Amino acid sequence: MKYLLQRLAFYLVTAWAAITINFLIPRLMPGDPVQSLLARYQGQLDTSAVASLEALFGLDRKQSLWEQYTDYWSHLLHGDLGMSFTFFPTPVGEVIGQALPWTVALVGITTLISFALGTGIGVFAGWRRGSWTDALLPVTTFISSIPYFWLGLIAISLFAVKWPVFPFEGGYDDSLVPAFDWPFISSALYHGVLPGITIVLSAVAGWILGMRNMMVTVSSEDYVMVAQAKGLSERRVMFGYAARNAILPNISGFALSLGLIVGGTLLVEMVFSYPGIGFQLLKAVGAKDYPLMQGVFLIITLSVLVANLLADVLYMLLDPRTRREA
């Protein structure tokens, strides 16, 4: 319990620091977002409303930076992330709420698939080193060195242009209305095949290499040799003794990957014009949309911190040394 409380206190301090930086960075960026908003609407907004717009977006020039900071925390604690410049007058929470399920569905499913597939292959490749599985290593090394957006462009060129099997942009058919029914779900799955395969191919190679190397290291440990000397089955030794300890570094990487699910893969969403949160972040940066940037960064930061906390809990459950040190 002491170990968990220490980690929780650490993450609370980290969250405060991240939120503070999240408040400061957009305000240090050059440019005036209110003037950019007025220019985008081209005379549809009255220029005399500049002061009102600045107050609405929390950029009141009459307030000091400290007053803006306290107001930001006040709104944040009430669940108010502000009003989006890019999608004015839509609230930031609504914009994120519309984009987040797309990213979580795509990146979440592909992360789970790549982790499970890569870890499973890595266990067998490391345990039975010198067999045919070692032939996979050059291929996985080559694939892991290719940026995933390049894989996306290759996939579009082959399977959407040369052989038009899958669509190359969007999250669903434009003729459909988003609803929880089979036509919409099947369309979303169909549009997610190419970006999903791109992410899996790019990520699975790293899991295979990492797990394979750890299995090679762990298989020569004394406790594995003792288990083999006891006459335990190869399957039990491989999974119950070797893989259980070899997977610990992968657990940390998987926890970070879970946290980054919310952030999505920005470049993949750009390449496929996928309506996820990363694509919305790109629009926010281009429009100097402070509230939307802060909202997206906040969600990403908190998700990474929660994922790391879960990783610490899993470490404590899987590795008795952590409990004893605490």
Features:
326 residues; mainly alpha; 16 helices
Number of helices: 16
Give a quick account of the main beta sheet: strands, pairing sense, barrel closure.
none
Q: What's the order of the H and E elements?
A: HHHHHHHHHHHHHHHH
Total beta strand runs: 0
Q: What oligomeric assembly is this protein in?
A: single chain
Overall geometric form: globular
Helix content: over 70%
Q: How much is the radius of gyration in Å?
A: 24 Å
Mean pLDDT: 78
Q: By helix and strand content, what is the structural category?
A: mainly alpha
Strand content range = under 5%
Low-confidence stretches: none
Between the first and last Cα atoms, what is the distance in angstroms?
Answer: 9 Å
Description:
- It contains 16 helices and no strands.
- Helix content is 73%, strand content 0%.
- The N and C termini lie close together (9 Å).
- It is an all-alpha fold.
- Helix 9 (193-218) packs across helix 11 (234-246), helix 10 runs antiparallel to helix 11 (234-246) and helix 12 runs antiparallel to helix 15.
- The model has no long low-confidence stretch (mean pLDDT 78).
- The radius of gyration is 24 Å and the shape is globular.
